[in-house]
Specification:
about 350 residues, mainly alpha, globular
């Protein structure tokens, strides 16, 4: 077969720098999407649709690194043990702490112990305590499916692309689960992002020849799907339905899938040293930020109920909406990063069991 590869980049470090930047962008997008709740109902609809979908980018990155780092010397037992240590332990620690905080709040609201325990059960039966943390059981389920991903890597390119298209078609019709609590549905829905990440890693040298075409195609598809979703479909945010209930075509999925390609291509053009360093710093803190920022969401939810603040919400103008959104994002994002740094400083190596 004809060699389609470009010149190999000068070093592995140089070749993966863009993924450090992409990880920083991905965690920023996730927190941006979680910072809109107090800026409603006048928050710009097109902007909201563009900010949703950061989870798909995270899954895409995981697929890339699965092929790049784990596949060459893959050991299933060691892989799962490593992921359990990195994800499940801090997930349990923070979830227990968050549940304690919620139960304390319910107690202060006047609920008796029986109702408090019942509320705790209603919370735990979803599989997570803090809403964004549904991602942890889902992604661990993805890692458990690694033998299937190994088979995917070892098959031919036509079969790989056919499976990617098939799973994408299923995802577009199936949508994300209601409340993100059906982890099997999430597994099927997000699998195309994981497979795309694998393919980008596996055929990276060949794909670099098509860098500009992929960048332009990715940006065009993001723009078209975001505009269509906002002004033709008139649907805001992610699509959530029961697995076998048809509710239209999920344009957010298509936007995010092509957005992964576009964002990766854009990250290859980051040249400002200060931005490179900052994104690397954020990438290194990405999981601690992910684990911690929902706790700050609870703080904002409580602040919104204070008598002095309550009359100011909901905001009435777009300008106020964007201001509130910016404040919530900065506090959640950099507040979580700051807390993570403090915890790492206090607990050293053991901090990974608390914040990842």
């Amino acid at each position: 077969m004809r060699d389609l590869s470009l010149v190999v980049p000068r070093s592995q470090k140089e070749r993966l720098a863009e993924f450090d930047y992409l990880r920083g962008v991905a965690i920023a997008l996730i927190v941006l999407g979680h910072s809109i709740f107090l800026a409603q109902p006048v928050f710009p609809l097109l902007l909201e649709n563009l900010l949703r979908g950061g989870t798909g980018l995270f899954v895409f990155i995981s697929g890339f690194f699965f092929h790049r780092f784990f596949y060459p010397r893959f050991n299933y037992r060691k892989f799962i043990a490593k992921k359990a240590k990195a994800l499940l332990i801090p997930f349990l620690v923070i979830s227990l702490f968050a549940l304690f905080v919620r139960m304390l709040g319910w107690w202060q609201d006047g609920l008796d112990w029986q109702q408090n325990v019942l509320n705790a059960w209603y919370t735990l039966r979803n599989g997570y305590v803090l809403y964004p943390h549904w991602y942890i059981p889902f992604i661990f389920l993805t890692f458990l499916c690694s033998p299937l991903h190994l088979a995917y890597i070892r098959t031919n390119f036509i079969t790989q692309t056919s499976l990617l298209v098939l799973f994408s078609f299923i995802a577009v019709l199936m949508h994300r689960p209601e409340s993100n609590s059906n982890f099997l549905q999430s597994l099927v829905y997000f699998t195309p992002y994981y497979l795309l990440g694998i393919l980008i890693s596996q055929y990276e040298q060949s794909l670099r020849r098509w860098h500009w075409a992929l960048l332009i195609a990715g940006l065009v598809m993001v723009a078209v799907t975001a505009l269509a979703q906002t002004y033709l479909w008139v649907h805001i945010g992610n699509y959530h339905t029961a697995a076998f209930h048809y509710a239209g075509w999920d344009l957010q999925f298509i936007q995010t899938l092509f957005g992964c390609i576009a964002m990766l291509a854009l990250c290859r053009h980051i040249r400002w040293t200060w931005l490179q360093q900052h994104l690397r710093w954020l990438a290194e803190l990405s999981f601690p930020i992910f684990f911690i920022h929902p706790m700050l969401t609870i703080v904002f939810e409580n602040i919104a109920t204070i008598d002095v603040i309550k009359p100011l919400l909901p905001v009435a103008s777009v300008g106020d909406s964007l201001l509130v959104f910016a404040v919530v994002f900065v506090v959640q994002f950099y507040g979580a990063a700051g807390i993570a740094v403090l915890i790492r400083g206090a607990f050293k190596q053991n901090s990974k069991f608390i914040v990842g």
